[in-house]
Amino acid sequence: MNAILLALAIVLVVAEKFLVTYGECKITINKEKMLTVNGGNTLLNYFAENKIFVPSACGGKATCGYCKVEVLSGGGRILPTEEVFIPRQDRIKGIRLACQVKVKNDIDVLISPDLLEAKEIKVTVFKITDLTSDIKYIILKLDDPPSIKFKPGQYVQFKIPETDEFRAYSIASSPLQGNIIELVVRLVPGGMCSTYIHEALDLYDQITLTGPFGEFYLREDSDRDIICIGGGCGMAPIRSILLHLKEKNMPRKVMYFFGARSKLDLFFTEELNELERNFSNFKYIPALSEPKPQDNWIGETGLITQVVERIMPEGSNQEAYLCGPPPMIDASIKVLTKKGIREIHIYYDKF
Ligand SMILES: Cc1cc2nc3c(=O)[nH]c(=O)nc-3n(C[C@H](O)[C@H](O)[C@H](O)COP(=O)(O)OP(=O)(O)OC[C@H]3O[C@@H](n4cnc5c(N)ncnc54)[C@H](O)[C@@H]3O)c2cc1C
Ligand code: FES
After folding, report:
1. Which range (4-13, 29-38, 93-102) has the least confidence?
2. pLDDT at 348 over 90
3. Which amino acids bring their CB within 6 angstroms of ligand 1?
4. Tell me, what's the pLDDT at 58?
5. pLDDT tens column, 184-218
6. Is 22 left (phi over 0), alpha (psi -120 to 50) or beta?
7. What domains can you pick out in the chain, each with its CATH number?
8. Is 97 in the pocket of ligand 2 (CB under 6 A)?
């Protein structure tokens, strides 16, 4: 019986793939832009064909959850593959994974207007250096377009050559240097993209990026004091924010707490110390959770959240930018709200 059902299911899938046609369908984006397509493929595919770069890290396999869009009508029922990424309250609003929505009829979608600005960016590898035993610093020179605009804190997606896979990497450089993108990439053992970057990427290689993306960026219309908290590669977007503030003459008070295990895990230290020497309203506070005797460490020790709790002044006229592993972000939010920062003034990227 099971074998018959399985055979029937396979026949239906194959028949849908090769025999069913949906004819011409219209995809209306943000109630203004319209794509006319031959139905049968996914929203994500049609977006890519039309150079609309919705973030996606898994090549459309419904395993990354990045490709969320709001479907106003015509998207059909949500699939079980989507449910894990879309909480109940978002399902009511029509949030869907673009890679799982097959276009079978006219469909009406809303995507963030920023995504319409995201581009394919061809770059050449200009420099690769080691920052720590498992973190590399990559400088990419833009070829086409020759420069881009981005907000400090945003990220790009790196296309792994010869695959349809992308991974997100925060831009570590200043937006004023629009012809260069710098990345800080940690090796995830067995990880596809980080291993490629660490083991195979070479000087002068040509790479395709898409972007810029992300809601984690410096709010420049605010005059609140700034608390930054970073760990590991969370340094990347915060460095971009700090470089931008430096270029603007550091108009706001900034405290940057950076957590590492031992001295070997610290990087960009000289650059940050110099920033501190040049701007009296910037304070860099690295902290080691497991300093080694040979570190001769006389700075802060403990988990970064404990250090923030000890040193950060109380006050509601502050906003915070956090980037690092999810447990660090979750614990930091608790400390920051206890100190008086409102949650709407806490911005973060977890990775
Ligand atoms: C907005 C955003 C910005 C990011 N910026 C950066 C950045 O600046 N620098 C950077 O190095 N990374 C960054 N990342 C993470 C990056 O996108 C990749 O997830 C990471 O490099 C792993 O990809 P991979 O292909 O090597 O591993 P995959 O092949 O995707 O994963 C291999 C295995 O490792 C696990 N895994 C994936 N990521 C991690 C992790 N971080 N820690 C432990 N295990 C993991 C997976 O669950 C899987 O089992 C960012 C992620 C996001 C969402
Ligand atoms: S592209 Fe990864 S879930 Fe849709």
Report:
1. 4-13
2. yes
3. 155, 167-170, 184-186, 188, 190-195, 214, 233, 236, 349, 351
4. 82
5. 999 999 999 999 999 999 999 999 999 999 999 99
6. alpha
7. 22-113 (3.10.20.30), 118-213 (2.40.30.10), 225-350 (3.40.50.80)
8. yes
